[in-house]
Amino acid sequence: MFDRIAPRYDLMNRLISLGLDRAWRKRTVRMLELAPPSDVVDLACGTGDLCRELTAAGHRAVGVDFAANMLAAAKASPVPLVRADAVALPLATGAADGLVCGFALRNFADLASVLAEVGRVVRPGGRIALLEVDEPRSRFLALGHAVWFRWVVPRLGALFSDGAAYRYLPRSVAYLPPRTELAGLIERAGFTGARHHPLHGGIAQIFVATRVGGRPLVARSRPPAPTGNPA
Questions:
Q1: How does residue 40 score in pLDDT terms, banded at 50, 70 and 90?
Q2: Which distant-in-sequence residues (6+ apart) come within 8 Å of 180 by Cβ?
Q3: How far apart are CA 109 and CA 99, in angstroms?
Q4: 163-202, pLDDT tens digit by residue?
Q5: Phi/psi at 210 (nearest 5 deg)?
Q6: In what helix (H) or strand (E) does residue 141 lie, and over which residues does it extend?
Q7: How many Å apart are CA 73 and CA 69, to the nearest integer?
Q8: Strand, coil or helix: 131
Q9: Per-residue buried b or exposed e for 156-168, using 16+ beta carbons within 10 Å of the residue's own CB
């Protein structure tokens, strides 16, 4: 599905979020609270938007995604790109100072295993920032959100991209664990201080946490080197 929607993925992100997704990605990078240059993995990097934000912030990024067409669309990103499964990342243990992930948690078949792999790759004292969609708690906002995502988004998808995919994507919110459960999964994966930050009234959210153990981060001189084949 993600291979099919790759050519219009950026356009659809802008339309669906009314352009807010750019600000959300910038905030995700800021909330890593890592001094540049730090080595940061962009998990499920898609077309590379978060990779570009990481680079703009002075970090050294590595983009990882399972969808070959997404990586092909991300070639403009001036960072290494690797095709890999999120539960078997071709990176050394503790190779990264941080990790970001944008709008992918609800699409992983085994989220606990993915988070465990994230815990392996991020070194002690490292940081993660996970950006996802959410559903507003306010009745008024929830009504508008439901109309937009359940009725308007599928029609925009059918018009500009892939109708079936954009019928699934709004419904996929149901696969995302509740906030407290997700925070628990993050902490069981080896992180501490998992915190939830709502965005724009709760239509999106960021989870941040710190890898257990280690001293305050000191950026290394080299980025984490992928051990698999680049896309």
A1: very high
A2: none
A3: 19
A4: 898 888 878 888 899 999 999 999 999 999 999 999 998 8
A5: -120, 135
A6: helix 139-147
A7: 6
A8: strand
A9: bbeeebbeebbee
Point out the least confidently predicted range of 14-23, 111-120, 184-193, 208-217: 208-217
- Nearest-CA neighbor of 115 among 53, 177, 171? 177
For the CA atoms of 59, 125, 116, 54, the dihedral, rounded to the nearest 10 degrees, stands at -10
Q: Give me the domains of the chain, ranges plus CATH numbers.
A: 2-134+174-206 (3.40.50.150)
Distance CA(67)–CA(16), nearest Å, equals 21
DSSP secondary structure string, 8-70?
GHHHHHHHHHTTHHHHHHHHHHHTT--PSS-EEEEET-TTSHHHHHHHHTT-EEEEEES-HHH
Q: Is the CB of residue 168 less than 8 Å from the CB of residue 181?
A: no
Q: Number of H helices and number of E strands within the chain?
A: 10, 7
Assigned token pair, 83: 């095709």
Distance of CA 170 to the CA centre of its chain: 16
Fill in the DSSP letter of residue 173: G
Tell me how far apart the terminal alpha carbons of the chain are, to the nearest angstrom: 18
Nearest Cα neighbor of 74 from 48, 110, 105, 108 is: 48
